[in-house]
């Protein structure tokens, strides 16, 4: 029996949950089984038009995830495509399955967002991105008009566990002939609690686990290590356990954050430069991608190592597209997303962690000393301000710094290079009335001064 056309949806209701890179929203408020079933049908219809015959589907530990994944699979099957339910997976484990099976994938997760949220990260065969202008726009159009029914036979669903294959694949990418290390790991009650034991098993690592119990209610802290308050437990635990380093994963474990043996956070830009150096040793002269918010030490160090740095906008779909276009071997973002050519150009927190462990364990210095070679500047981190007139406030910042400006570019928001070697970037959020400020300078005092000036302009006349 042919599937019926789905009911049309309002443009506003669809836009409320389909963002620039994925689907994200509060469960029961835009994200429910009916919407997700239609989204599965729209995604399957798009992938069928591109020649796909099956889709792999995974989900995280949130209470809503299994039911939403099942509804999505139902929509996929109604469009004549088979679906392989991977069960509990990390996002990069889903990318692994998409890559090795060469089929599209869908991951149910809201990443680092609180428990009431859920969403879908979708990819094409080979873990290639589906973004706002590369597929999500067609899915949006189908949801608004109503997804057309499929006249053929429905697809079938099956189940598969790929965790062991994922672990073995990563082991082949990063040989771990290293000195023994003690590593503290904060899984944040997220998917790292499932993947870390599988990947770290049989490696020369003494793992001290923290919050490994899968719990989508996040009883200990939000699974968002980008926020410094969520790193505090790991910092204290690393020092107390005498570990060589600490690793924190976000909720779906596609990002990792590092602290040294003293409990001090290691900048994602430092990790980016460290891993870039490893890839350039293996691939002399290769291209390395970095987004425009990473430290300028990253392109400097890449050039010094004989590589070619390429700067891009913030966001995984832009990074992945530029990786494919340029033939880059590695890419990094300030948000601790790291992308690997030998991992289907996809991001993987676990693969990044293995590279850091291999770097540290391949020499004798503690991480606090090792990281110094990659740190040249100080950064503010991302500072958000609620602003109604985003464009007006952005241009006011440009005008304010005009007498000290060396150059301005508008690749993503506005980046202002100052004559003293400092820089700042101001860009608007895609989804909220926020302006995001990032500043980097040679000293902490200079960072603080520029931040104070910029925020004074951004927040002039605003409540936030």
UniProtKB/TrEMBL annotation:
SUPFAM superfamilies: Phosphoglucomutase, C-terminal domain (SSF55957), Phosphoglucomutase, first 3 domains (SSF53738)
Record-annotated Alpha-D-phosphohexomutase alpha/beta/alpha domain positions: 18-139, 166-263, 270-375
Record domain Alpha-D-phosphohexomutase C-terminal: where: 382-454
Metal-binding recorded as keyword: yes
Cofactor: Mg(2+)
Recorded GO MF terms: intramolecular phosphotransferase activity; metal ion binding
Swiss-Prot/TrEMBL keywords: Isomerase, Magnesium, Metal-binding, Phosphoprotein
Single Gene Ontology BP annotation: carbohydrate metabolic process
Top-level taxon of the source organism: Bacteria
Gene3D superfamilies: Alpha-D-Glucose-1,6-Bisphosphate, subunit A, domain 3 (3.40.120.10), Alpha-D-phosphohexomutase, C-terminal domain (3.30.310.50)
Family: Belongs to the phosphohexose mutase family.
Designated name of the protein: Phosphomannomutase/phosphoglucomutase
Organism annotation: Corynebacterium heidelbergense
Lineage per the UniProt record: Bacteria, Bacillati, Actinomycetota, Actinomycetes, Mycobacteriales
